Amino acid sequence: MQDLPSPRPAPGQVRVRVTAAAVNYPDVLLIANRYQISVPPPFVPGSEFAGVVTALGDAPDDLAPTSGPGTVGNPDAASDFGRVSSLGTASNTRSADNPDTAGNSGAASHLGTAGDLGAVTGLGRANSFGTAGDLGAAHDPGSAGELDTACNLAIGDRVTGTVLHGAFAEEVVVATGSVARIPDGIDDRTAAAFGVAHRTAYHALRSVARVGSGDHVIVLGAGGGVGLAAVQLAALLGAEVTAVASSAAKLEAAASCGARNLVDHKASGAEHDHARALREALRATVPEGADAVVDPVGGDLSEPALRSLRRGGRFVTVGYASGTIPRIPLNLVLVKGIQILGFQFGDIGPEEFRRHDEELTALLATGRIRPHIGATYPLGETASALRQVADGRAIGKILIDPR
Fold first, then answer.
1. What CATH number is attached to the domain comprising 313?
2. How would you classify the pairing of strands 397-401 and 13-23?
3. Is 344 exposed, middle or buried (0-12, 13-18, 19+ CB in 10 A)?
4. 309: which strand partners?
5. For the ranges 129-143, 306-320, 327-341, 379-393, which has the lowest average pLDDT?
6. Which residue has the higher pLDDT, 106 or 226?
7. Is residue 135 left, alpha or beta, with left meaning phi > 0 and alpha meaning psi from -120 to 50?
8. Cis peptide bond upstream of 42, omega within 30
């Protein structure tokens, strides 16, 4: 932990006092230098947050104080670090003797999570509540929703936002286009936990897989942030959901979010061949075949899930939280007429993106969905929070409370 001066936002930026930050799997990859983009250490991790605007970059001097709580984790301002998690130091963001952590930006070994946070996969549209967030770029009206934009922020506004890194701190400075106001009735913890996971899941289901009422959807990694959001949203779309997860506790959470069928791929007798056990379980659960699979996990579970699709089914690959990018036999695609789909937020047309974002925000604002928050850690225990996500033990979203 470090205490450094509070940063002054530049024109086009805002300073936010962070009240809650969410842990995402790309945070783990970025620290290990296995993400699509490499960030030179030292840096402050953390990509998703909620909080209160404390200064505006274009405000008069008396409205943009340069002193405050004295702490910041900011990837954009010259004054870059404050009271922050020390994970972003050179000694623990890379390991010279580990070939998996020494890859290049964009290398094939990098395990990005499509749509999950962005960088290459969509930071330009990664904010919740309908604003564009382009990491310093100008506001993009093509991806703005109807609830609000970030062009007329005021000190004291509650906002949520995304950034490549810097959120695991008491304060963060970001581009104004990277934040959006939090609607009344939504608390900061919910806002921080909602945006990345639910937006990824909803666009995977609606914009890519075209899931509708009566479809059967298999969700892998159904206990994690994106997986649990996909279970909840697929059920609300009228689909029958089969949740696949690695523990009874995760499946209990999935059931509470609307999953009708529960498959523990690590159940007794499956320890040595998870793939075969999953294939048999899915054959029994979905004998006619599923219409869609949402896969944020990858690894040896992807192929049996793909085999469980009916003819013409859709398989959406969202990420590789298992640490392994699967190798799929293409003869399955030919024989069954299956579609294997990936996505980046930028691939979705502006009107469709706006329409689906508005649908998602309305579900939150009316209380029909809420993110499942599995645990909350103080800022000083950020390493433990990241480890829980990295080890696949998280249920729903994990939050950091920097206060």
1. 3.90.180.10
2. antiparallel
3. middle
4. 290
5. 129-143
6. 226
7. left
8. yes
Are both 168 and 268 inside the same structural domain? no
Of 34-38, 157-161, 331-335, least confident by mean pLDDT is: 34-38
When divided into structural domains, the chain yields a total of: 2
- Note whether residue 364 is domain-resident: no
Specify the DSSP class assigned to residue 346. G
Q: Are residues 205 and 318 in the same domain?
A: yes
Q: How many CA atoms lie within 13 A of 127 on its CB side?
A: 31
226 and 336 inside one domain: yes
The amino acid sitting at 53 is V
What average pLDDT does this structure show over 128-133?
41
Q: Look over the chain and give the mean of its residue pLDDT values, rounded to a whole number.
A: 80
What is residue 140's predicted lDDT score, i.e. its pLDDT? Answer: 32
pLDDT at residue number 22: 98
- Provide the pLDDT confidence category of residue 109 given band limits of 50, 70 and 90: very low
CA–CA distance, 19 with 289 (Å, rounded to integer)? 44
Does any domain span residue 3?
Answer: no
Question: Are 249 and 384 members of one domain?
Answer: no
Domain limits for position 248: 200-347
102 near 96, Cβ under 8 Å? yes
Q: Which residues pair with 314 in a beta bridge?
A: 292, 339
223 lies in the same domain as 255? yes
